[in-house]
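Training component of the fellowship. As part of building independent skills, the fellow (R.M.) carried out the full modelling exercise for a liganded target. The chosen ligand was protoporphyrin IX containing FE. The inputs are recorded below so that the supervisory panel can assess the work.
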Amino acid sequence: MTTRPIADPAALDELDLASPTLHAEHELGAVWRHLRTHDPVYWQPPRGTQRGFWAITRYADVNQVYQDKAHFGVENGNALATLLHGGDSASGVMLAVTDGDRHDKVRGVLKKGFSKRMLDLIGHSLQETVDGLLLDALEKGDCDAARDVSSNVPLGAICDLLEIPDGDRKYLLDLTAHAWSSDYADEPPEESWVAKNEILLYFSRLAKARRGATGDDMVTLLANCHVDGLPLNQAELMANCYGLMIGGDETGRHAITGTILALIENPDQWRALKNGDVDLATATEEALRWTVPSLHGGRTATADVVVGGRQIRAGDVVSVWISSANRDETVFAGPDRFDLARTPNHHFTFAYGSHYCLGHYLGRMEVRAVLDGLRRLVSRIEQTGDEKWIYSSILHGMSSLPVKFTA
Ligand code: HEM
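Fellow's submitted model of the complex:
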């Protein structure tokens, strides 16, 4: 039922790859294919007051940028939305937009929060949550997979990780939905600033309350850790809790809704899943390669460097497109085929290199739990209305997917 027009590579000069509207309202597969073939390190010239930037589309070049800490940094922002609009206010404070030694040390602290004990605990409640949501959806008959199923899965897991009180969870979900993307083309940016600030304030209060406490939830770990002999300051505390929330919630939701749509659009793969012909871990990787919840990564060149034969200058804004690299025909056979048995499947959905997603285990567990639940509990999924794509150039997914599940 996907009705989005295909963006025409011949009109590339008029397309703005940083535009949320372009990504919400068009299919960009043909544009990525064209760029990979003819102009893999593409310079998008300035548009009005917006500065120009590089768009890197081939797997090998994306790999180079992700791994090259010496020439690419994140401190001006790690997405076009911030890089082209004055930088990231959490620069040098939130892990995802911090470089160098400080990044490595804070990352070490956060990593402890993903202990095996914590992940086992979350895994158990995750499957229960998913099964419960699917059973409710089955009882309802008609439902919205994005709102009724996906939106309730990652937030629960991330809230477990941070030990957020039950009563606050719905409030945080509403805020995260507005912080980075929008259901509408013309939503004022103030909505997103207000949402971000409210999330930060919430975590500031929570972290304060947990200073001096013992426990292995992420907020307690951050509130009581020492880096270079000093505790994290209030800004670092708030920003890193916020980073986990924002990094962990919306991406996971989009991976799940995208997986459900892919199963609807590929009935042979739905049958393979149902018949137990595919291994769940393998199927999870393909769902993640396919759905690309994070469309691109943003970097600033910190020194002159050559990528794919093109000269990039220090200070240039660089974007690496996961949505393109995950479909690179030189790496993935039949890249436009959704194939739950695909192996090997070294996609970039969680990026690569020093900023590789810290929550990748959790992201994988969520998608796997949904595939498992669908396989056991649902016999048929039908799409009953048009899906609605979100307006964002960084996040990719649906705010609505009307479906009918049959037991
Ligand atoms: C980083 C995607 C789930 C926390 C990243 C990056 C990507 C990504 C692409 C790299 C950004 C960059 O290179 O600039 C995803 C996807 C997910 C997911 C697709 C789900 C399907 C999670 C979860 C958490 C999380 C569940 C935490 C609970 C983080 C953090 C970073 C990160 C903290 C920054 C790591 C660093 O800079 O060292 N994620 N993520 N993510 N993600 Fe995720």
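The panel noted the following from the submitted structure. The radius of gyration is 21 Å. The pocket of protoporphyrin IX containing FE is lined by residues 74, 78, 95-96, 107, 158, 161, 243-244, 247-248, 251-252, 255, 293-294, 297, 349-351, 355, 357-359, 362-363 (CB under 6 Å).
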